[in-house]
Amino acid sequence: MPSPIAFNPSSPSRSMFRKKKSINAMSTAASYLSAVSEADARARIQNGSPTSTPALSLSSSITASSEDTILDESEDNEDGLTYPSVPPTSEQVFTTVHTEFGHCGNEAFRFTSGHPLGEPVKVIHEQDPPYYILLTTYISYILVIVLGHIRDFFGKRLKPNAYKHLMFQDGYAALNSDFDSFYTRRLKLRIDDCFSHPVTGVPGRTIVLLDRASPDYNVTMIPTGTKTRALNISSYNYLGFAQGKGACSDAVEESVNRYGVASCGVRLEAGTLDLHVQAEALVARFLGVEDSLISSMGFATNSTIIPALVNKGCLVISDEFNHASIRFGVRLSGASVRMFKHNNMKSLENLLREVISQGQPKTHRPWKKILVIVEGLYSMEGTFVNLPKVLELKKKYKFYLWVDEAHSIGAIGPHGRGVCDYFGIDPHSVDILMGTFTKSFGAAGGYICGRKDIIDRLRISAHTGSYAESMAPPVLTQVIASMASIMGVTIIQDKPASSSLSLLRSSDASDLTITEPPSTTYPGNAPSTALPSWISLPPTLVDGSEGQMRLRRLAFNARYLNRALRKLGFIIYGHEDSPVIPLLLFHPGKMAVFSRMMRTRAIPIVVVVVAYPATPLVTSRVRFCLSASHTKEDVDTLLRACDEIGDLLDLKQGQGERWPLKDIIDRAVELVNMKEMP
Amino acid sequence: MNDSTSTLEPLFTALSYSFTTLERNFYKIPGSAVVARYVKSSHQNDPGRTLLEVILIIFAIRTLLQSRTRADNSGKHFIQFDEKEIDDLVEEWTPEPMVAPLSPKEQADLASVPVIVGPTGPKPKLSNGKTVINLASYNFTGLAGNEVIKERCIDSLRKYGLGSCGPPGFYGTQDVHIQLEHDIADFLGTEAAILYSQAFSTVSSVIPAFCKRGDIIVADRGVNFAIQKGLQISRCTVRWYDHNDLKSLEYVLESVEKERRKKRGPLTRRFIVTEGIFDLDGAMSDLPKLVELKFKYKYRLILDESVSFGSVGRTGRGLTELYNVPASQIDMLVGSIANGLTSCGGFCAGSNIVVNHQRINGTSFVFSAAMPPMLSVAASEGINILRNTPSILTTLQENIRAVRAILEKVDCINIPSHSVSAIIHLQVRLPSPTHLTPQMASVTPTSPKPSSPLLATPREVVQFDHELEEKILQDIVEEALAQNVMVTRAKRLRGQELQEIRPSIRLALTAALTKKDCEKAANVLKAAFVKVVGRRR
Ligand SMILES: Cc1ncc(COP(=O)(O)O)c(C=O)c1O
After folding, report:
1. For B196-219, what is each residue's pLDDT tens digit?
2. How far apart are CA A384 and CA A411, in angstroms?
3. Domain regions of chain B by residue span
């Protein structure tokens, strides 16, 4: 299938630039443009007739507008981030801005995410590092802890002023005692330059960092006033919907014009707009279940809705690595909690047998209900929940199941419908499907999906409905537009034909043939009647081809980086199809160095480093979040950086066969398409 | 002597045998040779170091083991079953249904929720085709639909996209977020401020960030649901004082201090938690007195201004502006950007220490994506408009006065809200003597014995017929809607709130309506009250 963003009308001149690879990194917009026009001229000569060639126009390749930062001459392209290193041929019409959503026309760099049907789910064993790594990791923690205590000891005596806020002070106990804040002050502060870095612009394929410097070892950070564009491997932008240009943004603009920015109230009072109703219907259809409920914050979706399902006398069984929002919600609910080992089905089953046979503590009365809460894709581990096995246990042990798909929705599965889709499971078999719009859809907020009776109960009894502000109209529009473009839209002609056709941009409407009947099957298209009549989408979004392209590019990138890093010898956790890829660093000191080295390379790269308390103490890691907006070249860039830094920091501790970097990059397609990694 | 050696001999051999086996096994462990060599050489250089390292290793192992221990079946209540018995028990167990089905009343409630078609604002269109006067939406300053804000939002959409795609700690902090934090701090006059992406989740995260087990919180009995949840999750010791009664507060502060002296407990962190204007009933706190008490007893003050921020004060800065109390005297000032600036999210303003502490410990700040940049631009622009147009707040106050002037005179309406509050609660006052109105209750001399600070429920509980009043109010809401005025009952999770809350209709006034419209709406409401309550007679 041709990719719509890289619209390529099957021309023979596709590989023309293979020979001209030497033209990389154009330094200015002008040189880029001249390269494009040269290429265009060459293509014309080769093809003889230019009929199949769309006229070269700036707007066809890069959306340009006067204030567009992309064509801002002041921004050079020395780092190769602003323009593609290989200029497009004029046959390739890219409608996205390269810095937001990379241009990648090569159909080979695509893959379909999905578990092979009928095969058992492999249990992934996490590799352990050599003992000396563990030992030195502990030693380095002990070292900083000891040093920290020594510094506190002397500091309190020599510089009492600096410790004032940590001590009793004219009758007030310290807000944050020196003991409670020890970890923050003495460990985290050392690497604070890797966190909370202010940014600007679209958090898409690249991101612009607002540079800062610290004169006093990270106590204060002072903006230097300069900016750096960096390759963004850190944002939760799985499908690349973080865009300032494009059809979704156009829809959002229209909605701001129509609706303003707020809904001014809570859902059950006067904060329900028609958009809420439409979005909820669409989300339910997207997930293939009866009904859904939308909340304005992903965190709050967990923290305020779990208490409506369970209470005292109920038991929640929670994976040990579940997200903070889940723990928050469970604690509010008053239910008892037990944890099982991360994604360990044996541990879960043993626990189930124990708790059901023992009943409630002390009284031994049977539990009212048992709710098992798991995540679809664990954002720190990169693991998928073993859903088939969980469902098997569910049948036997009769618990209710809540799957938090914050990271998996949109990001995995052949149709982007999350873990159920990935494993080919009927979504009805899960009681509650929860997810957020922050990650794959470039929006904000979260949803709960399930049977209608459950959702109706939650509308009435969950905190969200009565107390929390409802979702803002522009956010709802982003959800609707992005979701519809993943699903594809079936145009349904109702009597006033104009209203449904306005879904299409007027100029494009003639191209469209209405063939498919309205389908209600899962995972099917969205009927145009389910969308607000004023939303207009270009044909590539309506036919779902752009959505498919996003899904398939993400699947390729994820699998490529996963396998490539393993082949380079790193210790990588998680599933090979996961777009979240944790690379284990172990030593706390390496986190800061890794992050800084990445950020200060010739092509700056931003990554997220995480350590205790978000992970177990010894397994500090760097986490890559890939996106459909990354091109294969971007992943190559990242691999080169990892390879170099990995050698320097002695990170390649993994077992298994290794390939040299060059092989990996050249044989990427082969590597991704292998059934099993050798 | 010889004898004893011979008897000990087998012991020695056994010992030395086990020692060699141990050593051999030790060298079998991969990497052990390195360790041994390392220990040997370091021991030669500095014997003290070996000791230190051994201690460190023991420490490390202890931490390792500690993290693995879990509450398991060692408790004394554990009953041993064999596999077959467990299978039977599993077979036998039937869980309750996931949720209870909705009662007919709940279904009716759900069905009666109005759906606005198109933009919300002072006069929105509803799904039944009617255009109504809106006294239900939180749009105090009338910023909803403001063209300047829209324009700025679209600019920022093109520059930032919509979502922030990451938590603030991981490249989710955009310059516009920093700008808004700065704007809020500057507007209120505090050192700093921090943004949360949902107003409701703000205070329930702020409280547990500071208050831990063992700390003391003295809270108003009428605090809103979000605060209740924050108190619950913080697990600290809570003492209650009567709703908006600062005498009662002083009494509780005294009693806490007495208790501490008696127990000779350590000095812990102590907080007063209350609201500026209460979401419960629109009552307003006496801020100067509150601040005086907090300083006197050395408490910190967490003040939730979710309703008052953006609705009172000359330019909408809230209670601090109204009473002319420097905002810096309030340790944690929590507000709603969603209500006050018609955007989304919430904030907590305070000193740099207070704010920076939350950047690491505010759960819903750390673990949630930053708010969409566009919405923080909208809020910044909102502040800008409020600063430059004090007339907005004057109009709002005029509208409040106009509505109250009409409704206060109605016999069957009881208004517990403060006269400047932009939310006005209307309770129904039934004439029959069985229904004690709160007004009468407050007139009756309060019993000399104060309520126990340990309990969330006060000694004097006002009696009312919840079902009946709710029904009447809902009828009034529908009657008003039939006359094209949209109002709403205050929706509460009955049974989950700390105490039974008297049903009310909650009006939210706006500066976007003219005085005439407000009067018209108030008259419609008045007629609806009279009609529905009259029917009951
Ligand atoms: C599993 C999980 N649930 C919920 C959330 C919260 O989502 P949001 O950022 O939209 O508040 C996250 C975000 O990090 C998450 O990882």
Report:
1. 999 999 999 999 999 888 889 999
2. 12
3. 104-141+391-445+460-536, 147-388
